[in-house]
Every structure is written in C-alpha cells, then in structure tokens.
Amino acid sequence: MTDAKKPWGGRFEKSPSAFLEEYGASLMVDRRMWAQDIKGSVAHARMLAKQGIIAQADADEIESGLAEVYTSIRDGEFEFRIADEDIHMAIERTLTEKIGTAGGRLHTARSRNDQVALDTRMYSKDASLELIGFINALRASLLHVAQEHHGVVMPGYTHLQKAQPVLFSHHLLAYYWMLTRDVTRMRHAYEAADVLPLGSAALAGTTFDIDRQFVADALGFSVVSPNSMDSVSDRDFLLDLAYACTVGMVHLSRLCEELILWSSEEFGFITMDDSYSTGSSIMPQKKNPDFAELTRGKTGRVVGDLTGLLVMLKGLPLAYNKDMQEDKEGVFDAIDTFSNGLRAMEGMISTMHVNTETMLAGAQGGFMAATDLADYLVGTGMPFRDAHEVVGRLVLKLEREGRTLQDMSTQEFVDADEAFGADAIEAVDIYGVVARRVSEGGTGNDAVLDQLVAARDALAVDVAWIESQHS
Ligand code: ARG
C-alpha cells in the first residue's frame, strides 16, 4: 500500500498493494502524450471559463500552472511517479500542488475516459503526419535513384525465376507506388483520428453547458463526435493507424528482401554502403546487410501490434473498459518501428551502389527474349501456339549447348526455322525487348518516363497536403 492520495480516495478504505499499483499503471507508456494532455487541458479550461462554468481567474491560474508543468516535462525535470497511475493524473496532481484549489476545478465536465481518447487522437494525428513525412522522403529517394539509373536493364522475375527483362527504374517505381498507397492509408488514419471526443465525459455526456465546438476549433479537430458512448470506447482510429503501419512495414520488408538478395554474391546487383552494413566477429570477409534484415524482422512485431489491438477490442461491451489502457503500447511500438524502418530504408536506398553491368549481364541470360521471339514468329503469320513450340525447341537446344539466345547468329536463326528472317536477331536484343513494352504502365523506356512524371506529380501533391496540415 502506498500513501499517495487517489482522486477517488473518498469512496475507499483500502488502496491497492504496491504491486497492483504498478500493475495498473500506464504512466511509463502514456507519458509520451504529455504535450497533448497539457494542450487539451488548456483548451478545456478556456472553454469552461468562457461558458462561465469556472471563473476566468481560475482558468488563468490553470493555464499558467500548466505552462510550468509543460516546461518541467520538456526540460526533463518532471518527476514521473508510478503512484500517479497515468499521465493525466500525474499532470493534474502536479498542477494542483502548484496552484491549489483552481487546479481542482480543471476536471469539471471531463472524465479521464474522454481525456485519454482526446490525447490519443491528438497523438495519432501528429504521428501520422510525421510518418507521412518519412514515407515521402523514402519516395523521393526511390524516385531519385530511378531517375539516375533510367535505362539500366535488369532481369525481371516471377517465381524468382528469370522472366522478362525490365528497367531497374521500373522495378524501383513499383515500390514507389506501394509507398504512395501507404500515404493514402496514413491520411485515412489521420482523418479517422480527427474527431473531438472531449465533452463525452465518462460515457453519457455532462450536465454542464459546455461548448465542444470551441474546444474542437482550439485543438484543430475537424468535427465533434456525435455519440458520447461511442466516443469514449472507439479505438478504430488506432486500428487504422496500426494497419497503415503494418501494410507499410510489409512493403519495407519486401524491399528489404530484394536488397538482401541483390547484395549477395550470387546476384551482385547492388553493393550496400558500408554505413548500412556490418561485419562478422569471426569471418573477416563478411559484409552483412544487417539493417535490411532487421527491418524485415521487425515487421513481425508490427503485425503483432495490430493483432494485439484487434483482439483486445474484440468482445468489449460499451463504454470504457480498463482493457483499453492496453491500446497504446502496441500502437506506439508500431509507430516507432515503422518510422525507424522508413528512415533506415531511405538511407539504404540513397547510399547503395548500383552494379549496372551485373544487372545487364543477368538480363542477357535466362532466355528472357523468348516471348519476343515467339511474338516475332506470330508477326510472320505463324499461330502463337506453333511459335511457342518452335522457340521452346530452340531454347532446349541452346540450353544443352550451354548457350543463350543472344549467342545466335543470323544464319543460325534462318537455319532453325524457315519462318525466321535475318531480322530475327533484333527480336532478341535485350534493349529492344524492354523498349517494346510500350503499353501504359509497362517497362518500355518511354512508358517509364511517363511514369516518372506521374510519380513526381503524385509526390508534389502529397508534400503540398502535408504542408497545408502544418500551416
Ligand atoms: N490510463 C487510462 C487508459 O489509458 C486512462 C483512462 C482511465 N479511465 C478510467 N476510468 N480508469 O485507458
């Protein structure tokens, strides 16, 4: 048992043990919402005074007291005590110690239930904007590397078997578009959080004549929640945020996997910068893509964070339940992990060395011009199925000889089938194979140039949106 007086002390004759006090506390997790908590309280106090619910002089004292608390937390001087249970009570207790009676008036027409929902929504809004900033930075890097290496040909894969040659820029842009969708998802999470819950009180609303719109305007919320019970028990906005982080991590993880493969000796398509690699304590030759591996590994935790939140919410009756205190730790972890992953990935992409010759050499092998050679035969009037058969036989023969399509001479083509003309050799030129993919969204050089323009435009729109939110 501890001596700290609880805000609900009046009704109790006994307090929880020290163990239970710690077990029930969320302070070490929710303390990171301290700035949101203080901003929310200032807006609430101003509203209470404006409505004549508390005296203006009390509101002024509350505001200056909270400004002192703000400074002490910001400067690392605030003493966090587990006995306070959570950040809301830690701040209120400190405030009341500083200013006395007026501090005790702050919680009028408010409950920790709508207060925690408010703080969490404010925190989520800030976090989604910050994450969008990191996603955009990575998109910009991908775009830059794609532009710099436009024209570099590499093998494209299906089933991790060589399929058709593609432009390296096209491959990178595929990730660019995934990240573009991540921004859309993150913006949705932002909008989902952008609803003011304060004024719902414990669950049923309040008897005081409050002005919720005033608080919404003061704190930059677009709308006021329409139902007090939903408002204190809704954590969908956290699900949206955790989901956006999860999908984004899955994207990073896939890109990590490519970087890991590409930097192996077997592929050799890229060389990771030393600053994004580590060595081995025993094998002197090693250079490991540790940060790509770690990011891939951390994806599992974020999936777990989303799953944990879904399961925690499942089966909860209305309205607030203490279970919901468990909502923040996983989401904070998802936010931190995704933002660190994005930053690490941005560094890996912008510093990696692209081995264009190895990519090109890889694109020459694997008979990746076979489809084009069949298409060539179709152009001479041969049915596609027959063309497939002719080229298939040619591939088998070359494979036995340890050669590939690009090793064939004009004469050999003509000898292989009467339908081949002298120009058949052009059909297997790897640059030609790429350039012919002219369809919209295809890997042809011009199609990718159009794509680069579209990507640049999409990024500019998203960057402008972020700026409009900050202003
Ligand atoms: N620490 C709590 C949480 O994070 C704050 C709300 C507590 N409300 C209550 N009635 N116990 O959910």
Quick structural gist:
The protein is mostly helical and 471 residues long.
Molecular structure report:
The structure is a single chain. The protein has helices at residues 18-24, 27-30, 34-50, 56-74, 87-99, 101-104, 112-148, 168-193, 212-219, 228-233, 236-262, 290-313, 327-351, 356-364, 370-379, 384-401, 410-416, 424-427, 430-435, 445-470, and strands at 153-158, 161-167, 195-196, 223-224, 270-271, 353-354. It has 471 residues and is mainly α. It folds into three domains: 9-108, Orthogonal Bundle (Fumarase C, Chain B, domain 1), CATH 1.10.275; 123-353, Fumarase C, Chain A, domain 2 (Up-down Bundle); 362-447, Fumarase/aspartase (C-terminal domain) (Ribonucleotide Reductase Protein R1, domain 1, Orthogonal Bundle), CATH 1.10.40.30. It has a two-stranded antiparallel sheet. Strands 3-4 form a two-stranded parallel ribbon. The longest helix has 37 residues, at 112-148. The two termini are 49 Å apart. It binds arginine. The site of arginine (ARG) has 10 residues, from helix 7. Arginine binds next to helix 7.
Average pLDDT across residues? 95
User: What's the total number of strands?
Assistant: 6
Specify the helix fraction band: 55-70%
Shape: elongated
Report the bound ligands by name, code or SMILES.
Answer: arginine
The amount of beta strand, in percent, is under 5%
Computed over alpha carbons, the radius of gyration is 30 Å
- The figure for the number of domains is 3
The CATH class of the largest domain turns out to be Mainly Alpha
Count of alpha/pi helices = 20
First-to-last CA distance: 49 Å
Lateral arrangement of strands in the main beta sheet: 1-2
Strand-and-helix sequence, N→C? Answer: HHHHHHHEEHEHEHHEHHEHHHHHHH
Which stretches of 5+ consecutive residues score pLDDT under 50? none
